[in-house]
Every structure is written in structure tokens, then in C-alpha cells.
Amino acid sequence: MNLTFYPGPSKLHAQVEQHLQEAFQSGLLSANHRSTAFMAMLEETLLALRIKLSIPDGYEVYLTSSATECWEIISQSLVQQASHHVYNGAFGKKWFEYAQRLHPATTGQLFGFNDFPPDPAHVPAAEVLCVTHTETSNGTALPLPFLAELRKNQPGLIAVDATSSMGGEALPWLLADVWFASVQKCFGLPSGLGILIVSPLAIERAQALNEQNHYNSLLFIRSNFQQFQTPFTPNTLGIFLLKRCMQERSPIEKISTSLHQRAEIWYNFLRENGYKLLVGLPEVQAVTVVVAQDSEENIRMIKAKAQAAEITLGNGYGAWKKTTFRLANFPAITTDDSDRLMQVLQRSDKITG
Question: CA–CA separation, 255 vs 248, rounded Å?
């Protein structure tokens, strides 16, 4: 079977095959989503997420169709005039541009992907300040001190796109009011489900604005989830798989420690084997997405060599599409998987000094 290191959709957890059979045999896939059986399953899913991700008391957990839908929910239900977006890559930019379509006064603040984020004291106050925790397009991540200082300086809400880190890293929940992700990355599941986590302050803000004009208005989502229901016909299979995955996996602190250690191994390996890292500043190198850079010709040869070994590397993204490859460092990828890829990528002219 081909082994994929694509950073989303990525490798599924090995147990998914068994859980698919369980889902079919359970009868839940044919159950009405207002039924007692479905509501019990949704309640179990939310509880498992809360326990295994160490989500603080008072923060509420909802499910959506995707992280992209969460962009829309935030702009519709938590923003009255404008949000402000601090970003350094393609997905942060896409979020900013989408938010600007809904609220034209929305502003953006671009910083270099090989730089530290801007001084939080120089980030304008906003109704909602929006940042991307791990930028999948270039393999960068926000340093914890930056988020901590933002929290001190921002009077409004802070929203974090954690699509490539939730489920893989222990996140500092209390440093933001809205966290969201999709399940096809660190959760090791098929795409088609999003996770939205909101603080008491975010709920208060939604109640103050009282926006209820859409099927996915935050207050309408909340009123449904308080009854363990959904505001639309849900992805029942996706919810079942998420429940079983979360029930079986280790606590996030253990997973996070393991991924941090493996990321360090990957960065050292690439440097020692003569690969140039796209992100040279260690403080902003992502844990879950590692990006190496080379000439267009060499990247083609590297990817072809990997493909011959039945391994798929992630393509570069945007401006780096042809001159980089990306590696997912997600929980479903095992140490044996990484060792197998390292054997393919190892170069004879290894740098030892």
C-alpha cells in the first residue's frame, strides 16, 4: 500500500478500517439524527474530544463541515464591522480575503514567513483578531510567547485556525477564544468534518450581536449542540469515526511530546543530508508540517524516487509548488513510516560537521 506524507488529507489511522465496519454494523448510519441513538453518540464524541484534548471547562465544542466553514461562522456571528488578520502564508491570506468579502472594512497584516510575527503591541485592536497557528503552505508556526502577548494586548476576541495542529499539539486554549480545525490532518480521519471550540467570551459576544440569519449562525449551532443535535443533517459516519478515534488515542500531552521529538529528528536529518529548509528560523518552524527546498529538477527527482518506493511526498504550495516538498508529521504516521522515508531521502554526501 502506498504510504502518504501529504499534509492533508493525509494518512488515516490504522484503526479506521475496523471503525468503518463497526459503524456499518451499529445501525447508526441509518439512524435519524434527532434519534436518541444519534444524540448519545454525539454526546460521547464531544466528551471524548474534551477529555483527550484537555479542553478547559467553560469552552464549548461544536462540529461543522470543515475549517473553512468556521471562517464564515466567525465573520457572520462574531464580527460586526471588521476583523483583523495577521498572517504569513496562503491559508491565512485566504481566510483574510474571505472575511473581507463579508466585511469589507476587514484588515490584514502580512509578515515574512522566515521572520518572527509582528510585535503584539503593534497589532491593531480588533473585534476579532485572527491568526493561523500552523501555516500548512510554508511550514511555519506561531511561537507561544507571541500568542501570550497577543492575549495581554488584545481587548477583543482572538480566533485561531489550528487546522494543521489541533489533535497533534497540546494547544494553549486559554490564549484564544475560538479554535477550529478539520479532521483530515492530525486526527487521521477522512475529510468532511470540522471542529469548532469557543470560549465563554466568544459566546457572550455572539449573544450580544444576536446574529441568527443563517443555518450556521453560532447561536443556532449552540442551541442544537446543547441538545446533542446538529442544525443540519450531519456527517454521521465522520462523527462516529471521530468518537472512536478519540476514545482510543492517547492524551494530547503524550502525542504532542512525541511529535515534537520526531519533528526535531526530521529537521536534523534534513540538515545533515544537505537539504535546505524553507523555514530557517527554528523558533517558527512547524512541528506538524516540515518543508524542504531545492531546485525544481532536484525536487522532481526526489519525489520520483519516493514514488518508486511507494511513498507520496507533499507537493509544495503556491510560489514554492515546484521547488519544495512538504512532509506531514501527524500522529497517524508511525516512527517506522518516518524511518522508511528517511532511507529513501538519505544522501551519500551526508553532512556530519
Answer: 12
For the entire predicted model, the pTM comes to 0.96
* Pair 314, 326: CB distance under 8 Å: yes
CA distances from 302 to 295, 309, 339, 340 (A): 10, 11, 16, 14
What is the SS3 assignment for 176? coil
The matching CATH number, chosen from 3.90.930.60, 3.40.50.10260, 3.40.190.10, 3.90.1150.10, for 3-10+251-345 is 3.90.1150.10
Nearest to 179 by CA among 204, 205, 199, 153: 199
Of 341, 285, 279, 276, the residue nearest 314 (C-alpha): 341
Rounded mean pLDDT, 111-132:
96
Q: How far apart are CA 206 and CA 222, in angstroms?
A: 10
Q: What is the CA radius of gyration of the chain?
A: 20
pLDDT value at residue 347 = 81
- 239 Rama sector, left if φ>0, alpha if ψ -120 to 50, beta otherwise: alpha
Domain with CATH 3.90.1150.10 in the chain: 3-10+251-345
CA 107 to chain CA mean position, Å: 23
Q: What topology does CATH give the domain 16-248? A: Aspartate Aminotransferase; domain 2 (3.40.640)
DSSP line for 210-269:
T---STT-HHHHHHHHTTT--SS---HHHHHHHHHHHHHSPPHHHHHHHHHHHHHHHHHH
Which residues of the chain are in CATH 3.40.640.10 domains?
A: 16-248
- Looking at every residue in the chain, the average pLDDT score rounds to 96
Question: For residue 197, what pLDDT is reported?
Answer: 98
pLDDT at position 318 is: 87
Percent of the chain residues topping a pLDDT of 70: 98
